[in-house]
């Protein structure tokens, strides 16, 4: 796997219908007698929030050259396509929320490849997770812009996953058009403006909503 050096972000997109269908039971006690296990259901606590399960992700990277500490941070979807087997590690994430999202990703899940920090940010294509989270090697490389002196081999702070190109979108979807909640944006499952965290954070996009592109 070639060493890459771009800073990236990752965020979830979920099926809102599934979230509405899920309720957590509280006050239930499980009793086991001999080999028999019985589960007693209790009342649902209205204060508890349902656990979100993400099936699609939004992963962002920079498609245009930007030099940081002598290294070019550029890595767009065309760069991914040029890699052996069209596969690469998604390294350089240095945001705790995004790191936690990476650690939740499962092999086979898909993600929107989002071009960020460029003239026209937006969704360019689809990738899939082909290797689940493991330590990000760039945190130990003193010459890498993402080196973290506080991280150790014994207790690494940062993780990465491997992704593989799936396909380009039929058309590039600029973020401005998606934010406007047009039918085109909704057609690819772009989160609507009501999910304010998507637009409030430059480092991490969080938006529980998805449809298959």
From TrEMBL:
PANTHER family: THYMOCYTE NUCLEAR PROTEIN 1 (PTHR14087)
Keywords of the record: Nucleus
Intracellular or extracellular location(s): Nucleus
Species whose genome carries this gene: Staurois parvus
Record protein name field: Thymocyte nuclear protein 1
Regions that span the bilayer: none
Keyword Nucleus part of the UniProt annotation: yes
Domain EVE as annotated: residue spans: 56-180
Cited SUPFAM superfamilies: PUA domain-like (SSF88697)
Residue numbers spanned by region Disordered: 1-54
Sections of the chain in a coiled coil: none
Purpose of the protein: Specifically binds 5-hydroxymethylcytosine (5hmC), suggesting that it acts as a specific reader of 5hmC.
Alphabetical list of InterPro entries matching this protein: 5hmC_binding, EVE_domain, PUA-like_sf, THYN1-like_EVE
Major subcellular location class: nucleus
């Amino acid at each position: 796997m070639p060493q890459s050096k771009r800073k990236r972000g990752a965020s979830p997109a979920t099926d809102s219908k599934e979230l509405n269908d899920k309720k957590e039971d509280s006050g239930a006690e499980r009793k086991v007698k001999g080999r028999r296990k019985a589960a007693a259901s209790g009342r649902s606590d209205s204060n508890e929030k349902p656990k979100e399960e993400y099936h699609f992700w939004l992963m962002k990277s920079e498609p245009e050259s930007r030099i940081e500490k002598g290294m070019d941070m550029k890595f767009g979807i065309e760069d991914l396509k040029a890699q052996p087997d069209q596969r690469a590690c998604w390294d350089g994430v240095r945001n705790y929320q995004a790191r936690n999202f990476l650690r939740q990703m499962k092999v086979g899940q898909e993600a929107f490849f989002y071009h960020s920090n460029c003239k026209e940010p937006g969704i360019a294509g689809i990738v899939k997770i082909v290797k689940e989270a493991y330590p990000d090697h760039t945190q130990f490389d003193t010459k890498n812009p993402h080196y973290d002196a506080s991280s150790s081999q014994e207790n690494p702070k940062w993780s990465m996953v491997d992704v593989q190109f799936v396909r380009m979108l039929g058309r590039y979807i600029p973020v401005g058009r998606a934010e406007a909640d047009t039918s085109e944006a909704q057609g690819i499952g772009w989160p609507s403006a009501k999910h304010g965290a998507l637009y409030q954070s430059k480092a991490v996009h969080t938006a529980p909503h998805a449809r298959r592109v």
